[in-house]
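# step 3/5: fold
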Amino acid sequence: MPTFNYRAKDMAGNTITGTIEADDERQAAGKIREKGALPMDIRLAAGVGAVQDRPAGSVVARYLIYPLWTGVNIRALLFFFRQMAALLGAGMPLSEALRSVESRQRGRLRRIVHDMHQRVIRGGRLSEEMARHPRVFSRLQLSLVRVGESGGFLEQMMDRIASYLEYELSVRRRIVLATFYPVLIFLFILFKDIGVAFILGGARAGLPMLLGVLRQVGLPLVGIIVGLKLVMQFDTARYGWDFVKMLPPILGTAARKVAMSRFSRALAMLYSAGLPLSEAVSTAADACANVAAAKGIKRAVGAIQAGESLTLSLQRTGVVMPMVLDMLSTGEKTGNLDAVLQKVADYMDEEVDATIHKVGIGLFVLMILIAGVIVLMQVIGFYSGYFNKLIGGSGS
């Protein structure tokens, strides 16, 4: 009969661990409940049918497809972590929760969850199985899952990850909404002549113009985007691009604030979860989604490990904004760094909202002016030709 390792909570709420023999995991969970304990994690004892690790995905997928699209969007991940938090919080063992969530997933994420479920049954740790898919699960998510596994509160960490993904999704939505009208005007500028041709001459006149624009502009643009996506897989190229993004006066400020907002939110979550400060800073830096900012922040890790204060260490990097440093300094002096980090995250969210709104308005006005100038030049050109013909006709 197989032997299972388990972790459970007794009637007093204490975490207990042990081994139990059962035909399968469901029977093991039943035996644990008969002892008056609530099973939290059940897995096959190490060495019993263990699965050997293998690279996740083919070479073509890893280097050509997944850099362009991982096959798992942020909404699917949010749904996965929110469901896992609910099921684990209800007392369902980890492997049963994975099995239940697997049936509700689609596409690549379903295959990944199925693989994790099989490996967890055979003794694998969830964090280790998630680490096999680095393009799907971030370092931030892995760190929180490891903390939850070691501390016996995995469901809380799953809930925090889901909350962070909701925040990340809201930031992306704000950026999309702020740039929607500027993009719309840009498309108007690009296709206005084609629209006029369709109206005046029908498809026979407009279709050749449309195909010509797509051939001359669309295909090269797609090629540039795909090429940039592939090139950005190299650290040097990604660092250079992220560094340049932070240089312009307005757009650079927006990029810096978005990076700091993500860093602050991640740091508050990791530190409150119980990670050592240096490890929390290093992991939260990767949440910036900006390699240049992350590399600068990580320079502070060594100083923090040597005993230097968080504020002074971050100040020396030159990346973190003065207002954020002032708030962190207050938190360290009062011994209330945990709460202050959360306030810093809320403050940066407000700053990002205001900055994105300003940038969106600025881009909208700029595109309106550009469109107006282009239309004005065409009108002037039309009437200049018209009057030249009139003058030429009257002269003859």
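# step 4/5: annotate
DSSP finds 16 helices and three strands in the chain.
# step 5/5: archive (pending)
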